[in-house]
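ARCHIVE CARD
CATEGORY: sequence design from structure
SOURCE FIELD: tokenized fold
FIELD CONTENT:
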């Protein structure tokens, strides 16, 4: 099963189950700055004009559960510090409540939640040559956020708060039941590199030398079950790989490990040991 995932692998779209589509669309447009690409009766596809980055599907009878595995947050990566400043100014102007902010050494991040409680991070990366290392290994930190420095970035008249072109989903952070099982799945089967351990409760994994495409923690979910099918929260997230050969290499390792692989519209679906759904697809 040894193998390394395609180094150009990235996180693609994130699909969430939410309770009220109009409310969520309004929030993600007005407060976060997404654009609606298209909308149907119960589903909306949002982004910044390129590939869909966020898919929202309404299920007004979906249960709301706590104490399970699932989404911790999904992370919106903006292209520059000035773009992060624009988001911060807009969140302030719209009186959007922040749950936190931090300097992680490799990045600067803002944290909040949507109306259904789904966690969101908005962040910018520092250039790779500025990422801190300790004894030859990447070191992510949790230091105070430099509000003054970020807000000193130049603003542009007429800024609407819309997310900049080039914005992507940089990573997804998941609640899992077991760090050991999750590491075996994401590193041993899918082929990500372990980039950092954060005490006994979290690990970070990545492709191609990135700081992390996935965070995995047991802070509130150790030994807990997955949410019931159709619950409010994460439906699935995408991993976008370079080509069919890169996808097939991951699928072959999954099947060799006894991980079921399901063919779905747009790609192939696998579930991690905590029940989180991962769609493998070829990059557009």
């Amino acid at each position: 099963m040894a193998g390394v995932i395609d180094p150009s692998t990235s996180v693609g779209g994130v699909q969430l189950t939410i309770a009220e589509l109009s409310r969520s669309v309004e929030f993600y447009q007005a407060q976060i700055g997404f654009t609606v690409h298209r909308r149907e009766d119960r589903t909306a596809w949002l982004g910044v004009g390129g590939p869909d980055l966020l898919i929202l599907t309404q299920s007004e009878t979906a249960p709301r559960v706590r104490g399970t595995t699932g989404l911790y947050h999904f992370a919106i990566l903006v292209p520059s510090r000035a773009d992060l400043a624009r988001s911060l100014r807009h969140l302030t102007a719209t009186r959007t409540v922040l749950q936190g902010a931090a300097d992680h050494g490799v990045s600067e991040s803002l944290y909040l939640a949507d109306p259904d409680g789904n966690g969101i991070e908005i962040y910018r990366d520092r250039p790779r040559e500025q990422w801190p290392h300790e004894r030859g290994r990447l070191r992510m930190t949790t230091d105070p956020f430099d509000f003054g420095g970020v807000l000193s970035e130049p603003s542009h008249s007429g800024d609407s708060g819309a997310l900049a072109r080039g914005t992507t989903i940089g990573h997804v952070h998941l609640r899992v039941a077991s760090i050991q099982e999750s590491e075996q799945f994401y590193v041993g089967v899918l082929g990500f590199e372990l980039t950092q351990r954060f005490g006994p409760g979290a690990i970070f994994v990545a492709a191609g030398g990135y700081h992390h495409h996935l965070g995995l923690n047991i802070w509130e979910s150790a030994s807990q079950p997955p949410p019931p099918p159709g619950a409010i929260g994460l439906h699935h997230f995408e991993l976008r790989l370079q080509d069919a050969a890169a996808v097939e290499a991951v699928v072959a390792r999954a099947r060799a490990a006894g991980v079921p692989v399901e063919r779905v519209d747009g790609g192939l679906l696998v579930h991690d040991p905590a029940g989180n759904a991962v769609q493998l697809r070829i990059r557009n």
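CARD ANNOTATION: The chain has a mean pLDDT of 96. The chain is about 20% helix and 35% strand.
SHELF: design records, drawer C
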